[in-house]
Design goal:
- The structure is a single chain.
- By secondary structure, the protein is of the alpha+beta class.
- The protein has two domains: about 210 residues, no CATH class; about 160 residues, Rossmann fold (3-Layer(aba) Sandwich).
- Helix content is about 40%, strand content about 20%.
- The chain has 14 helices and 14 strands.
- The strands form three sheets. Strands 1, 2, 3, 4, 5 and 6 form a six-stranded antiparallel β-sheet that branches.
- A hairpin with a 2-residue loop joins strand 10 and strand 11.
- Helix 12 packs antiparallel against helix 13.
- About 45% of the residues are buried.
Length: about 400
């Protein structure tokens, strides 16, 4: 069972706490830009080798590097008034020094400040890694031609894959190793009744890895394509020690049903996707249709079903709607959202808080502050902010 251990839950709590500092028209939080004129320089999702190679080639101008280093040092040192004074009028109009302090106080004491790093495609933005006792964050800083700060963006830190690295494309490496070690095949899996092989498929330049699991005791079988919930999921839809899609694949294949599962585009290519490029089609629909086409070409497959989980379930009708008649034998919707995203997100945070049987005072306060932010959202503010944050921290 997933527990409230490690940096993921710590960040969720602090994100909820930071949100109380939000005031329209500002969006301030982990994973949220500050300032209504500032775009999101880093999209949610895994950072692949291709992105790391682009990052290695990107070079910061002296103006951007110097301004970003100074801003990061001021933020880490708690010198929020000085930090605010380095901002251009657009930033100073959007946020106060007190609000910057509220963010810093919620994050805690900085232990180390990294060097400014370039962001491919954003020559006026630098990322500085801030290390805290329980986690790291990426502080993205955007400056104008005069070196004045015009954007400040905080998000959970993502390790960038270096060329040749065997590390996971995203997430905490220690948590991933722990999860793999603790995973066990469910009792309903019947060893020796199925096999699986990996493949590559998809649009040129956006290829994805997938795993096809199929029964070995028959020549013909139905097959399903699994479509993920929200967030940059791997092919197993890994959540803590759980590997939901692997469980389903092995269990169904044990009973004569083939399963195809694949890495999500934002998991593999998230680092090179511009914010405007992340749509239901680019993130989910196009790749799901490509996966269906791949499965239909496999020998032994008699018919294909689409099984969507959460966001995948919500988009399943749209995926099917663009396919030729008869392509799919049917749709299966698992935990399809039946309420607005902002309500669902509060419920998920509440659930995570009580999963170990207790809800601490700090957790109650974080939930209360999140509910305050949702109230602002329902008044017409912050929808884009909360959607981005939910996409970052939830699966399903």
């Amino acid at each position: 069972m997933w527990t409230k251990r490690g940096s993921r839950w710590e960040l969720i709590k602090r994100c909820a706490a930071v949100m109380v500092a939000i005031a329209a028209p500002i969006a301030i939080a982990i994973g949220i830009t500050i300032g209504i004129t500032i775009t999101i320089p880093i999209v949610a999702g895994g950072t692949g080798v291709a992105y790391a190679e682009e990052a290695a080639q990107a070079v910061l101008s002296p103006t951007v590097a110097e301004a970003a280093a100074r801003a990061a040092e001021l933020f880490a040192a708690g010198k929020y008034q000085e930090l605010w004074e380095t901002g251009a009028p657009v930033l100073q109009a959007a946020i106060t020094a007190a609000q910057l302090q509220a963010i810093g106080d919620q994050l805690g004491e900085v232990q180390a400040v990294g060097q400014p790093q370039a962001v491919p495609g954003y020559p006026r933005t630098a990322v500085v890694v801030l290390t805290y006792p329980a986690f790291k964050v990426d502080l993205a800083l955007t400056v104008d031609e005069e070196g004045k700060l015009i954007g400040l963006f905080v998000r959970p830190h993502e390790e960038q894959l270096q060329p040749g690295s065997a590390a996971s494309p995203s997430g905490d490496a220690a948590d991933a190793a722990d999860a793999e070690e603790s995973w066990e095949a469910p009792s309903y899996v019947i060893p020796g009744t199925f096999a699986e092989h990996t493949t590559k498929f998809g649009t040129p330049g956006w290829e994805l890895g997938g795993t096809f699991t199929y029964p070995t005791d028959r020549a013909e079988y139905p097959a399903i394509v699994l479509v993920h919930g929200s967030g940059p999921n791997d092919r197993d839809e890994t959540i803590g020690p759980n590997r939901i899609f692997r469980d389903l694949a092995w269990g169904l294949a044990s009973r004569g049903i083939a399963v195809f599962r694949y890495d999500k585009r934002t998991y593999v290519h998230g680092g090179k996707m511009a914010p405007a490029d992340v749509t239901p089609y680019s993130e989910v629909i196009d790749d799901a249709r490509a996966a269906i086409a791949w499965v239909k070409q496999q020998p032994g497959v008699s018919r294909v079903y689409l099984v969507g989980h959460s966001l995948g379930a919500q988009l399943a009708p749209a995926i099917a709607d663009g396919l030729p008649a008869g392509t799919l034998a049917g749709l299966v919707l698992l935990a399809a959202p039946a309420r607005p995203l902002e309500e669902l997100f509060v419920y998920q945070v509440q659930y995570l808080a009580q999963i170990d049987g207790t809800v601490t005072d700090d957790e109650k306060q974080a939930i209360s502050q999140l509910e305050m932010a949702v109230q602002a959202l329902t008044a017409g503010q912050l929808r884009q902010m909360l959607t981005f944050w939910a996409h970052q921290f939830t699966t399903g």
